């Protein structure tokens, strides 16, 4: 339940269109609901501005379905990240309304409109095509949370003229999420070109000495560009959540 749903419930109660018992029935699952294997945080949107998101990796298809079904009933809109194809097929059959995005490995159920964030846009950049799964996770997650997103892909430092050709577009961004593997240099370059918050996302893309993204992570953490902050390896959703909070505070 988010702020608007709660406000609608209280207004209906004040107008006499909703009984006290019915309202209590709606609120009884707050602040969480215990499914035995998971405790669903139905109260999170009221505290944090957006609801609980399901992390699919490590969960069985049955657990994902049970969680998503309850979240869909309570909130309508549901985001499931790190969802493989097989689990997505099970979810789609069990809970109507989900759309699976195979590149980003996430599923979205958009049953009601999302209030758009007034500020923006949020730019998502990827260094290479191999970084698209993480970049799309960030872009789609941010759109699900109400951000206006623009994508700028395959603009890594191996051909930096591709990025510099778009420098005027970069100045239009309110916040930038910059996704890069290999040596992870792109966030530093972008951070030196703009006066907006830059969130770097290291990916696990790279050859042996990239150590599954650790080389990119350390390079970004040692950025000499001011105002660059970093999330964990492959954490596109985490970058989107941070960017959306920046936009929410600015709106």
Can you put this structure into words, describing what you see?
By secondary structure, the chain is an alpha/beta fold. It has two domains: 3-109, no CATH class; 122-250, Rossmann fold. It is 40% helix and 16% strand. The protein contains eleven helices and eleven strands. The chain has helices spanning 3-14, 20-27, 44-48, 61-75, 85-94, 132-144, 161-164, 167-170, 186-191, 214-221, 236-250, and strands spanning 33-34, 39-40, 54-55, 78-81, 98-101, 106-109, 122-126, 149-152, 175-180, 198-202, 228-230. α4 (61-75) packs across α5 (85-94) and α6 (132-144) runs parallel beside α11 (236-250). It is globular, with a radius of gyration of 20 Å. The model has no long low-confidence stretch (mean pLDDT 89).
What's the arrangement of secondary structure elements?
Elements: H1 3-14, H2 20-27, E1 33-34, E2 39-40, H3 44-48, E3 54-55, H4 61-75, E4 78-81, H5 85-94, E5 98-101, E6 106-109, E7 122-126, H6 132-144, E8 149-152, H7 161-164, H8 167-170, E9 175-180, H9 186-191, E10 198-202, H10 214-221, E11 228-230, H11 236-250
Parallel strand pairs: 3-4, 7-8, 7-9, 9-10, 10-11
Antiparallel strand pairs: 1-2, 4-6, 5-6
| Beginning-to-end CA distance, first to last residue | 22 Å
- Average pLDDT confidence is 89
User: How many beta-strand segments?
Assistant: 11
- The count of helical stretches stands at 11
Instruction: Output the helix-strand order.
Output: HHEEHEHEHEEEHEHHEHEHEH
Which strands sit side by side, in order, in the main sheet? 8-7-9-10-11
Helix content: 25-40%
Please give the radius of gyration in angstroms.
20 Å
| CATH topology value of the largest domain | Rossmann fold
The proportion of residues in beta strands is 15-25%
The tally of domains stands at 2
* Sheet with most strands: 5 strands, parallel
- Alpha-beta content class: alpha/beta
Write the CATH architecture name of the largest domain: 3-Layer(aba) Sandwich
Could you name the CATH class of the largest domain? Answer: Alpha Beta
Unreliable residue runs:
none
- The 3D shape can be described as globular
